[in-house]
Design goal:
Radius of gyration: 17 Å
Order of helices and strands: EEEEEHHHEEEEEH
Number of strands: 10
Distance between the termini: 21 Å
Helix content: 25-40%
Largest sheet: 5 strands, antiparallel
Bound molecules: zinc ion
Shape: globular
């Protein structure tokens, strides 16, 4: 029995030729607020906490649940940690958009600081909002996955992205055990 046939008894894209089964990296996360989407890898699991997975050998980014994301990245613990972080922050996420601390920066963009992280919101020429999260400690930037009609939705997406940035930082500053 191999675990790496993937979960869901090889359902969905796990059974499809031309879809890489390994080598995926989580590039963003999102709390949908309720289970409202089917995992794009197994095409079976209904998910709320989404991990957006990318692979250089595949054109599309796939929105996946914890189990598939863990197998695709061959990092079950990393995927479980990202899932847990999203779950633990649902309340903070809810109030993030209206939190005290938002100000308008010198360029006219809404901005907030949270520890090492600086979140800046931008209005694109077509009137949609996106955000960038900068880890000021290492000067690494993460962009929200999508563009949003509402500033508050974009802020909540930026909050999710900040959680991923924090998770990355935690992982990179932890001693790595290789077996
Ligand atoms: Zn799945």
């Amino acid at each position: 029995m191999s675990n790496f046939d993937g979960p869901g008894a090889g359902r969905g894209k796990w059974a499809r030729e031309g879809v890489p089964k390994k080598g995926w990296e989580c590039v963003n996360v999102e709390d949908l607020g309720e289970p409202s989407q089917i995992c794009e890898m197994c095409e079976a699991m209904e998910i709320r906490y989404v991990q957006y997975m990318r692979n250089p050998r595949y054109a599309d980014t796939l929105a996946c649940g914890l189990v598939c994301a863990g197998h695709m990245s061959e990092d079950l613990i990393g995927a479980a940690n990202r899932d847990k972080t999203l779950k633990n922050n649902t309340r903070k996420r809810k109030t993030f958009a209206s939190r005290r601390g938002w100000y308008i920066n010198g360029k006219g963009n809404p901005q907030i600081k949270d520890g090492w992280y600086r979140v800046t919101m931008f209005k694109t020429p077509n009137g949609l909002w996106k955000g960038v999260v900068n880890n000021t400690h290492i000067d690494r930037s993460y962009f929200t996955r999508d563009l949003f009609e509402s500033l508050d939705d974009a802020k909540r997406a930026a909050f999710d992205t900040m959680l991923l940035a924090q998770e990355h930082h935690l992982q990179s500053s932890m001693p790595v055990n290789r077996f």
